Amino acid sequence: MKLSHSFVKTLRNSPKDESSRNADLLIRAGYIHKEMAGVYDYLPLGLKVLENIKNIIRTELNKIGGEELLMSSLQNPELWKKTDRWDDQKVDIWFKTELNAGGEVGLAPTHEEPLTNLLKDYVSSYKDLPLAIYQFQTKFRNELRAKSGIMRTREFLMKDLYSFHTSEEDLDAYYSKVETAYKNIYDLLGIGDETYETFASGGVFSKYSHEYQTFLPVGEDTVFYNQDRSVVLNDEVLNDEVLNDLNVKREELSSTRAAEVGNIFKLKFKYSEPLGLKFIDNENSQKTVYMGCYGIGVSRVMGVIVEKFADDKGLVWPENIAPYKYYLIGIGEEGTKIAENLHNQNPNLFIYDDRNLRPGEKFADSELLGIPYRIVISDKTLAENKVEITSRLTGKKELLTLEEFTAKL
Ligand code: ATP
Ligand code: MG
C-alpha cells in the first residue's frame, strides 16, 4: 500500500468530541471515522485489522465444526414475541422501525430467535444433529451510554455461534470445546495472558454463565479474583452462596476493572421450546433441541487490543493483528528507488510511505500507526549495503543486509 495513494490522512490533533483513548488513537491514525456518538466507520486499515481478528476466530471455530452463514439484520417481530423479547419493557435496546407496507421490523441486537426458527426448516431427526452455526455480523443496540470508543457502540461487529444438540451431555461436551477454542482465540489475539473465564449470572439451567473478561483499567465491568487467578468472578455474583460454591473467601479476593470480550451460555430449551425447534429421537419420540450460544465482541476486542498495547507514541499492533507487517521509508535517491522496488514486489506486506514529507514526520506516523516493524533504507544504511529494522514494540534497532531482509520476507 502506498500512502500517497490513500484517501486517509493521519491527524495531528485529537478529535474534540472523543473521550476514549482507543477511538482517539484509531481516528488520529486513520483506522476509523466517527459518524456520531457510538457509531464508527472502519477505514481501509481498520477494516484489515477487523478481518485479521475475524480470521483468527474463524479458523478456531472451523476446527470445532463451526459452519459459517450470514443472517439478515431486519427482524420479524412475530418471532421475538414468541420468546417475549420484542417488548421494549423486556429488551430496552431495540432499534425498531415501521414498514411502508405496514407493520414493524427491528434491527437485530442478537440472533437466537431467527436462527432457531430457521433451523425448523432443516432439523427434524436426531440424525440432523448436532450442529454448530456461526456468523460475523453487525448488531444494533440502542445503548444509553457510548463513552468507551469502539468498545461500546450502537452498531458493532459480533461473532455469534449457536450450537444444537440432542442431549444435555452433548451440549456439555461442546461447551467444553468452545472453552478451549476461546482460550486459543484470545491467545492468538495477543490478550490471552490477561483474559479470564469468569463466573457470571444469567445461567439458564446451570447456576452460572461464563464471560471472558480482559483485565483493563478502562473496562466497564468490575471483576474479583484470587491471588493465582484460578477463580475470577463478576461483581453481580459476589455473594456468600457463590463464594461458598467456589470455595474462596471474600478477603482472598481483589478487584479490578475489566472489559467483557465474550461470553458463553448453556441455553438448554430457552429458545427452542417457545419457537418449537424439535427433533425425533431414535425411539421415534419427539424431543426439544438443546441449545448453547457463544459470543465474541469482534470490534470491542479491537478496542481492547488498542487499550492494552498503545503507548504515548500511538498504536502498537501484535503482529498477527496488524494491517501490514512493515512500514517502509526510503531516504535519498538510491534509498527511495530500492524501497519502491521492495514495495512493488510485496505490496501486501508493506505500507510504503512515499509521501513528500520530512523523514521525521514519517517516523512519527510509523509510530502512530503501530505497524510492527519500521524499515528504513537510506544512503547511510546503503553505504553498508544494509536496511534498518526497528521494532515498534521494543524499539530495538537492527541492521540487516538487503539479502538477509528479503530472505526474511
Ligand atoms: P455488555 O454486558 O458489555 O453490555 P452483553 O452481555 O449484552 O454485553 P452479548 O449480548 O452477549 O453481550 O454480546 C456478546 C459480546 O458482544 C459481548 O461479550 C461483548 O464483547 C460484545 N458487545 C456487547 N454489546 C456491545 C456493544 N454495545 N458494543 C460493542 N460490543 C458489544
Ligand atoms: Mg454482559
Features:
409 residues, BirA Bifunctional Protein, domain 2, Rossmann fold, 2 domains, 9-stranded mixed beta sheet, 5-stranded mixed beta sheet, 12 helices, 21 strands, binds adenosine-5'-triphosphate, binds magnesium ion
In words, what does this structure look like?
This protein has 409 residues and is an alpha+beta fold. The chain folds into 2 domains: 299 residues, Bira Bifunctional Protein, Domain 2 (BirA Bifunctional Protein, domain 2, 2-Layer Sandwich); 83 residues, 3-Layer(aba) Sandwich (Rossmann fold). 30% of the residues lie in helices and 28% in strands. It is built from 12 helices and 21 strands. Strands 3, 7, 8, 9, 10, 11, 12, 13 and 16 form a 9-stranded mixed beta sheet that branches. Strands 18-17-19-20-21 form a 5-stranded mixed beta sheet. Helix 2 packs antiparallel against helix 5 and helix 2 packs across helix 8. The longest helix has 21 residues. The two termini are 16 Å apart. The mean pLDDT is 96. The structure holds adenosine-5'-triphosphate and magnesium ion.
